[in-house]
Structure of Histone deacetylase:
Amino acid sequence: MLKIAYDPIYAHPLPPGHRFPMLKYELIPAQLLHEGIITAGNLFSPQPVDEVTMLLTHDAGYWQQLRDLTLPPKEQRRIGFPLSAQLVEREVRIAQGTIDGCRYAFDYGIAFNVAGGTHHAGSNWGEGFCMLNDQAIAANYLLANNLAHAILIIDLDVHQGNGTAQIFEDEPRVFTFSMHGDKNFPFRKERSDLDIPLPDGIADEEYLSLLKDNLPGIIDNHQPDFIFYLAGVDVLASDKLGKLALSKEACKARDRFVLEQCRSRNIPVQVSMGGGYSPQIKDIVEAHCNTYRVANDLYF
């Protein structure tokens, strides 16, 4: 069964003056329901992540400032919007949704979080609309509970997973792989275990070739028993922030290749959706839904 973390709070609008395509979090499950790919039984609503699990990844002082809404204004500006209780609630539910997705991935091979991919959040900072790093929190949960012993995080969002790289810089059990725009945000990059910086305007063939040349070897060398996949669709040519030139077809082929690598090796995978900023919301939703369609074809 394809299990998908979704809660109405995912689509919580940001304060006035802060534009962000939150509508996709409602439209993705609605489209999948419309197509009959899922039913309501495929969706689950996560609870907030507990503090003990949270603090396996994030600094206690930073978390307390988020929880108590006392994060300094400068740090709020780095995140990109003013702090609110509902936004913090959203983040802690997203994090738990990714942990729950890991459990379902053990059962079914794959599971999704409609939101997530908050990879700019480091151990003691938030940045780029990310306050808590959902996949890092889930990875540390798996390690702490002996549910996984070697983890691979595949980050194919157009922006480097700088927070993820920082969190796991001294953790040999987690291999971080980021393919991202070289001249895009964040402008101060961290060091992943493998970074592939991409030139502006890279198109389908070259992008897919780089992915196919690198990913199988990473998996074979690291031998992960769990994989996280951040499937951002801000690699599209239509994306107003991405600077790359991928077609929807290539983005779908990217997802198929990644998930085929997981499926063929029987490695469970949790997928968080990451970014997407095309001017037309239909382009964002279609590209994200393609990831679910591919998963449904391969696994179910």
Q: What stands out?
A: The chain has one domain: 3-299. The radius of gyration is 17 Å. The beta strands are 3-5, 43-44, 110-113, 151-155, 174-181, 194-198, 226-230, 269-272. DSSP finds ten helices and eight strands in the chain.
